[in-house]
Design a protein that fits this description.
Elements (H helix, E strand, L loop, with lengths): L2 E10 L2 E11 L4 E5 L6 H9 L6 E6 L2 E2 L10 E4 L11 H11 L4 H14 L15 H14 L4 E5 L7 H18 L2 E6 L2 H7 L2 E6 L2 E6 L1 H6 L4 H6 L4 E4 L15 E5 L4 E4 L7 E10 L4 E7 L4 E6 L1 H7 L6 E6 L3 E4 L5 E3 L3
Parallel strand pairs: 3-8, 3-9, 6-7, 7-8
Antiparallel strand pairs: 1-2, 1-4, 4-5, 9-10, 11-12, 12-18, 13-17, 14-15, 14-17, 15-16, 18-19
């Protein structure tokens, strides 16, 4: 089912939670609402679910008006961050709850529950209680309960936020596989950039109640529309154009800033071409890569990321003088937020 959100506004007292939200979600898509706390992502999800009423604007699902439709008639599955399972019910009873409310036959309930237990890979655990399951297993049960009634839309509000990092990563991969199998139009809220990039077909980046950019993971990372998007999607060095990492003539305007990803900074032990001198202040081993903190001659701090192979080849250490140059940078003009790749 496709979802169309048009001109949505929502205010709580003096706080503008949503401001002129326009969004189209394709049938069968898996979309992430990504942003920091207070960006409006959970409010937008709740408005789509019918748990909040917009002050202005319209919502359609598959071309049908949804804005003021009773939440019980929306046929939406909702998964919360904190599992919200019935503690006194077994796994099987939790999954069957919505089906029994809809007065499905005993055989229909059994067949659907068996199907979902197999789908969430918890066969044989149907008679256990939530307290006997791990956090990851409980969240799978919560998802199965939401899917049991065959919703036309599945909404997930930070579904993995209460789990530890290892379990979160495992469940992200599992959710992606599950979606590829079921093709239910799904929208999930997250503040975790890696989670959004790994799981979603499309990412909606929000900030201060507004949408900053919508696009595929590759589009929003490689072609950020605003300074916020670039700085929110991973680490970035932000320098004034006068920092002399490039020829000054390459940038127009006094207010231009250079946005450079750490992995786009090349480190050399001897100057080769147009470079800038820097001093290594700190070397941080992150396991899969090496983070190098450098100080420029004007005392500005720059971070570079090197592969383990690059670091071994360079043989650099704190206190050493090196030479750096950006392989790529982007320029934002503070007057209008426009962006352009650097001219090399």
């Amino acid at each position: 089912m496709s979802i169309l959100v048009e001109n949505i506004y929502k205010r709580f007292g003096q706080f503008q939670a949503l401001e002129n939200i326009n969004l189209e979600i394709n049938d069968g898509g898996l979309v992430a609402l990504l942003g920091p706390s207070g960006s409006g992502k959970s409010t937008l999800l709740r408005v789509i679910a019918g748990l909040e009423t917009p002050d202005q604007g319209h919502i359609q699902v598959n071309g049908q008006p949804f804005t003021h439709l009773d939440v019980r008639r929306r046929n939406i599955g909702f998964v919360f961050q904190h599992y919200a399972l019935f503690k006194h019910m077994t796994v099987r009873q939790n999954i069957a709850f919505g089906l029994k409310i809809r007065k499905c036959s005993h055989q229909e309930v059994k067949n659907r529950v068996d199907e979902l237990l197999d789908l969430i890979q918890l066969e044989g655990l149907g008679n256990r209680y939530p307290s006997q399951l791990s956090g990851g297993q409980r969240q799978r049960v919560a998802l199965a309960r939401a899917l049991a009634v065959q919703p036309q839309v599945l909404l997930l509000d930070e579904p993995f936020g209460a789990l530890d990092a290892k379990v979160r990563k495992e469940l992200r991969a599992w959710l992606r596989r599950l979606h590829d199998e079921m093709h239910v139009t799904s929208v999930f809220v997250t503040h975790d950039q890696e989670e959004a990039m790994e799981v979603a077909d499309e990412i909606v980046i929000m900030n201060h109640g507004r949408i900053e950019q919508v696009g595929s993971p590759a589009q929003v990372y490689d072609h950020p529309a605003t300074p916020f998007v670039m700085s929110f999607l991973g680490p970035v060095n932000i320098l004034p154009s006068g920092a002399k990492l490039f020829e000054a003539s390459e940038f127009e305007g006094d207010h231009a800033q250079l946005f450079i990803r750490p992995h786009d900074i090349e480190v050399q032990v001897s100057a080769n071409g147009a470079t800038v001198q820097a001093t290594i202040q700190r070397v941080i081993h992150l396991g899969w890569e090496i983070q190098v903190e450098l100080t420029l001659t004007d005392q500005r701090v720059v971070t570079a990321h090197l592969s383990r192979e690059q670091f071994t080849e360079l043989q650099i250490e704190p206190g050493q003088t090196v030479f750096i140059k950006p392989k790529m940078a982007r320029t934002f003009l503070s007057s209008d937020g426009s962006i352009a790749p650097s001219k090399r």
